[in-house]
Amino acid sequence: MDSRLTLVVSVVMGCLVLTVRGDGHLSNSTGSSDFTFLSVQPLTGVFNRTGCGVSKLCVEQPTECNPATNGTCAFVSSALSSVNGTDIAFELRGESTGYIALLLSPDSQQGNDKAYVCANSNNSVILTTALFNNSALTPDNTLPVSGALGSVSGNIIRCSFVASGLNATASSARSADTSFFVSFATGSFSNGVLGSPAVQLLSNRSLDLTNASSNASPSSAPTAPPTTAGGSALLHPALQGLVLLSMLILRLF
Ligand SMILES: *[C@@H]1O[C@H](CO)[C@@H](O)[C@H](O)[C@H]1NC(C)=O
Ligand SMILES: *[C@@H]1O[C@H](CO)[C@@H](O)[C@H](O)[C@H]1NC(C)=O
Ligand SMILES: *[C@@H]1O[C@H](CO)[C@@H](O)[C@H](O)[C@H]1NC(C)=O
Ligand SMILES: *[C@@H]1O[C@H](CO)[C@@H](O)[C@H](O)[C@H]1NC(C)=O
Ligand SMILES: *[C@@H]1O[C@H](CO)[C@@H](O)[C@H](O)[C@H]1NC(C)=O
Ligand SMILES: *[C@@H]1O[C@H](CO)[C@@H](O)[C@H](O)[C@H]1NC(C)=O
Ligand SMILES: *[C@@H]1O[C@H](CO)[C@@H](O)[C@H](O)[C@H]1NC(C)=O
Ligand SMILES: *[C@@H]1O[C@H](CO)[C@@H](O)[C@H](O)[C@H]1NC(C)=O
Ligand SMILES: *[C@@H]1O[C@H](CO)[C@@H](O)[C@H](O)[C@H]1NC(C)=O
């Protein structure tokens, strides 16, 4: 595969983690135990930042954190994996004893967003797809996924997969629209039930998952110093407030 055609959007999330608290019981009322999980092949080795901004789009928190290490790092990468522009390879890495999830939204509203969930099942990764509707994940088995790999190391979950059929455009004639607001979430997972997701990382604008430098700030070149690379598009203050608010709400339960 031509690496230039391969866009990896890596979203690393981590520092805000309150971890999952108190949301296990919420999930019962959502009746969300109807998820169909795919077992995935073991991910051997770890992915890293090589290619970020060049051959893959990386979104992470804290800024520039390396998904290959054991430190705090919430990371998502994306890479175009087919010439028709709708198959996109993702890498996810984050800390959770339950699950980590990639959320893709065509707009800044959270509703009916696509979710790709990698869960720790007895120290193996299993994967499911879902809709993220306001605060809950609901099963959606219509999102094609292939080539999934995963590993669990302590509380670190890593997974990679190829998603097909991503198309953010609802009304345009463009051949494929691969631009989404990118979020990362964690939640609890037990007895097949996914707890409510705590969103930890949000891009403050739509990012083209097939453009390795689409999160570069307008004023800086793709080869800008490390301090401006990965996290530049993260957490607009208003969205940060939303995240904190949602965390507060979770804690009330
Ligand atoms: C969750 O719902 C199931 C089925 O309604 C019920 O049997 C179970 O006791 C509930 N669990 C909790 C923790 O409420
Ligand atoms: C990153 O991962 C790639 C692919 O596994 C590997 O070839 C490369 O040496 C790694 N880079 C670093 C800095 O570890
Ligand atoms: C990360 O933790 C795992 C499990 O404890 C260990 O095997 C591995 O060597 C650690 N890696 C680094 C880079 O410290
Ligand atoms: C894109 O290409 C892949 C592989 O060639 C194919 O499996 C997939 O169905 C194609 N997707 C669309 C939307 O044409
Ligand atoms: C988890 O793994 C342990 C040790 O291999 C095994 O005894 C246990 O049955 C497994 N639990 C599930 C739910 O698979
Ligand atoms: C999502 O939420 C909206 C508004 O609450 C509701 O109308 C819709 O049916 C929900 N969709 C799913 C798939 O749950
Ligand atoms: C994306 O969606 C738009 C609007 O539904 C459609 O016109 C376009 O053909 C779609 N692109 C792909 C590659 O499916
Ligand atoms: C990728 O994104 C950057 C930053 O938004 C933009 O300047 C550049 O034109 C984009 N490249 C392509 C091929 O769309
Ligand atoms: C997104 O956040 C970055 C870094 O905080 C900021 O430079 C940029 O102006 C923001 N973009 C928008 C559209 O708010």
Automatic annotation (TrEMBL):
Name the InterPro entries on file.
FRRS1L
Query: Out of the domains of life, which is the source?
Result: Eukaryota
What residue range is the signal peptide? Answer: 1-22
Q: Name one GO biological process term.
A: regulation of glutamate receptor signaling pathway
Keywords, comma-separated and alphabetical: Signal
Q: Which PANTHER family match?
A: DOMON DOMAIN-CONTAINING PROTEIN FRRS1L
Q: What is this protein called?
A: Ferric-chelate reductase 1
- Supply the source organism for this entry: Megalops atlanticus (Tarpon)
